[in-house]
Write a structure and sequence with these properties.
Layout: E1 5-9, H1 16-29, E2 36-40, H2 43-53, E3 58-62, H3 79-84, E4 89-92, H4 95-99, H5 105-117, E5 121-126, H6 130-134, H7 138-149, E6 161-165, H8 179-196, H9 199-204, E7 207-209, H10 218-222, E8 229-232, H11 239-246
Helix pairs in contact: 1-2, 7-8
Length: about 250
């Protein structure tokens, strides 16, 4: 039985003080939650939030990282810096990194391998645009992104990888893939892992859904056979929205 993994991606929101306040509220409200939990504040709030969640049942996530450990990379954040402040998980390949900032499959794969080498867990994001879906290429795109993102990742390392399916057209738009549509892409993703590794690896793989997850649709999404959690964006910025998502089965 796969454990549900509910993650909040705060994106470019919250000052350090605001992030600490929200983290405190979530820590208190989710102290007895049985699901795996993560919050990913912006880089400027990571250190402050790390002190709040340390020792709690909430993991600390970073929203991105550089492709190399150090050097002349203005504006980037190193895996070594993230390790030093207690980050547990790194979100990589988010659609905004791919489509707004031009990150390629190869670049994302480099980051995945570097993060795993340093002992981090990774959330690898995959998902199609509206144009790709309307052209009938959703499954092909997700399969390719999964294969590319996991290139040269061993089955042993796969224990630290979660995949998040996020249809680009559903992020921040209020639109959500139907649970059945989402589950079908999750199954394609799981089958891709099976073909790359093994039946056992595919069965253990946690695959989250991301794309306008809200309190009123979380339980239905989580009830699908291949959906094992959620990567929550906008609704993770308010405790009264994130708490019921994280405890969707209460």
């Amino acid at each position: 039985m796969r454990q549900s993994f509910i993650a909040g991606n705060w994106k470019m929101h919250k000052t350090p003080a605001e992030a600490v306040a929200l983290a405190e509220e979530l820590k208190k409200g989710l102290s007895d939650c049985k699901h795996k939990l993560l919050i990913a504040p912006s880089f400027t709030a990571l250190d402050a939030v790390s002190k709040v969640v340390k020792g709690s049942n909430i993991l600390l996530g970073a929203q991105n990282m550089a492709t190399v450990e150090e050097g002349a990379h203005t504006g980037e954040t190193s895996v070594l810096m993230l390790k030093a402040i207690g980050v547990d998980v790194v979100i990589l390949g988010h659609s905004e990194r791919r489509h707004v900032y031009g990150e390629t499959d190869e670049m994302i794969n480099t980051k995945v391998k570097l993060a795993l080498e340093h002992g981090f867990e990774v959330i690898l994001c995959v998902g199609e645009t509206l144009e790709e879906r309307e052209a009938g290429n959703a499954e092909k795109v997700v399969k390719t992104q999964t294969e590319s993102g996991l290139k040269d990742v061993t089955e042993a390392q796969l224990e630290k990888v979660t995949i998040a399916y996020e249809p680009v057209w559903a992020i921040g738009t209020g639109k959500t893939a139907t649970p059945e549509d989402a589950d079908q892409i999750h199954k394609v993703t799981r089958d891709t892992v099976k073909n790359l590794y093994s039946d056992a690896a595919a069965e253990k793989m946690i695959i989250q859904y991301g794309g306008s997850v809200k309190p009123n649709n979380a339980a239905q999404l989580m009830s699908m056979e291949n959906i094992d959690g959620a990567l929550v964006g906008g609704a993770s910025l308010k405790a009264d929205l994130f708490l019921p998502i994280a405890e969707y089965d209460k």
